[in-house]
Amino acid sequence: MHCLWCDKEMVTEVHWGSLLLPDRVTYLCRECEAALEKLDGYLCNKCGRQVGRGGETCRDCRRWEQLSQWQGVLTQNRSVYVYNERMRVMLAKWKYRGDYKLREVFGIGLQDTFRKAFSKHLRKQAVLVPIPLSEERLYERGFNQSEAIIDVLGKPAEQLLTRTHGEKQSKKTRRQRIHTENPFTLIKPTDKPVILIDDIYTTGTTLRHAARTLKSHGCPEVYSLTLARS
Amino acid sequence: MFRAVEAIESYWWGWRCRRCGNKLRRKFADIPCARCNQTHVYCRNCVEMGRVLECQPLYVWTGPHPTWPVRGKACGWDGELTAAQQQASNRIREVMEAGVGELLTWAVCGAGKTEMLFAGIGRSLEAGKRVCLATPRADVVRELLPRFRHAFPDTSISGLYGGSEKKAADGQLVLATTHQLLRFARAFDVMVIDEIDAFPYHEDPSLPFAASRAAKSASARIYLTATPRKKQRRRLEHGQLDSVFVPIRFHGRPLPVPRLILSSHMKKSLQNNMPPVAFFNWLKRRHHPERQLLLFVPYVELAGNMEKAIGPLLRDKLGDTVIASVHAADEEREAKVQQFRNQELQVLITTTILERGVTFPSVDVVVLDAGHAVFDEAALVQIAGRAGRSPDDPEGEVLFFHAGKTKAMVAAVRSINAMNNRAVKI
Ligand SMILES: [Zn+2]
Ligand SMILES: [Zn+2]
Ligand SMILES: [Zn+2]
Ligand SMILES: [Zn+2]
């Protein structure tokens, strides 16, 4: 096996313990694995970023919840990795350069977080909805990263939304983003809880717009899972 | 007429990437394509150059060579060249007219090398030849396109860079990033390679391979550089490579010499995403506060974080300062560079992606943590070369803030001084 990131050959250590355990496939060499930081310890009970104490809600989330139109729109977000330099480079190669194969690297982490973050009941009930790309962007990239994430989770994806406006918003300030027009339109309503899937949680605006669109058409509760939390 | 060939060839033993030559099975993977709802094989080995799929062919010229008619005057540019530019322009034209041979043009940043190419390219186009200018950076292709369209109004011109895959690659004159050369084979009579010393050209062995494959076997090859690498200097010294030297800027003023400013609290300041105190001291007293400011930082995260940290402060000190930051994977990079060029932004914080090629008329240039390993001699010379580009403001300050001089910094200053001395002798 060669590391999917740096292509170094990985020597699998065989010892008595590993003979008893089912094979856990590794995609990254030890160094590359270590360069990724899992989000653990105390997490904001809303957005899943690291916070100082358990049970805390971070300042950004408190601000969201103070706005009446956004209060409770997104029940909870959980993310797998810290958006550090390595994560940024990996996501760029995956998304923009289009190295689709890299999704496999995130598989185990995604599955772990998915299982840990959401109750068994929710996992069974909920439908997984990818954040859609605009048609133009999808053509450019050839694939939607959110769907690829659902694919490595081994779950079916439900296309309930389409994107009507462009994705670019990094030029806008937080305030502008919060008040921007909703870029999503509903294709199909659902009465089941939804777990939205996206690659990065940055301000949470995109996810909240999607959540509000679903909820205003009868969806009881919306959670989200992202690969990285910036 | 070009024949589109499959980028990935399939054999009984596996695949071969026609672009980079990869045959290793583990370096191929599947991708479901949203364009045609099929699963394609793609090559992971050269995916950094932009993924090619079965539905995005490579262009190969197989039949008789394309013919563009022999015609009258192609070049509509009627500006004047300086004596040094004229001399280089003549040499370039001679090689292009001869149709075979190599020439290295060593021209300082701001020498006006684009204009030096016009005469030769014009003659080549008139003769029905196909010309390619390859440069390492997409920003440069975007900057050059309108200038070439203006200079060669009746010529079909293709501009190719990452993100422009949909555009046709069939122009008589092709401006492309070096990565895009991988799409061509034996296609060009004249090949101009800009910034021959630049990343990624000198780092990635498959790119020189691609460049030589893109040219016809009998072709004129012109290399441009402001900062030749050791390898090229050695070839020059040994007389293995013809060269022409342009040590003076087109406006005749010397290159701004960087000032090295020691600031002992560099690490600490940068940890707080702030420039060091010495920077602010300079900022308060700088001679031309009306100039835009190009601020180089060593790594990506710092660019964004510093924008957030100093944005409010700068707005406070410089009034209505508008500030932005930009890095290689920034989706808005093109727009931000354009805004800066339009002077809608006062300060642009950037990683080394803007070290080359891009021209802004009136800037002061600052490097923070100039001792960082990403700033090698060539990078520092190039960065310094961003200042004083316009004849209306030919000076521009260049400051390297550092926590201890490095060889690269000293060498950069020395080589800039050496250029200026040679320029005086002309
Ligand atoms: Zn590795
Ligand atoms: Zn939070
Ligand atoms: Zn390849
Ligand atoms: Zn396709």
UniProtKB/TrEMBL annotation, chain A:
<protein>
    <submittedName>
        <fullName>Competence protein ComFC</fullName>
    </submittedName>
</protein>
<comment type="similarity">
    <text>Belongs to the ComF/GntX family.</text>
</comment>
<dbReference type="Pfam" id="PF00156">
    <property type="entry name" value="Pribosyltran"/>
</dbReference>
<feature type="domain" description="Phosphoribosyltransferase">
    <location>
        <begin position="142"/>
        <end position="228"/>
    </location>
</feature>
<dbReference type="InterPro" id="IPR051910">
    <property type="entry name" value="ComF/GntX_DNA_util-trans"/>
</dbReference>
<dbReference type="InterPro" id="IPR000836">
    <property type="entry name" value="PRTase_dom"/>
</dbReference>
<dbReference type="InterPro" id="IPR029057">
    <property type="entry name" value="PRTase-like"/>
</dbReference>
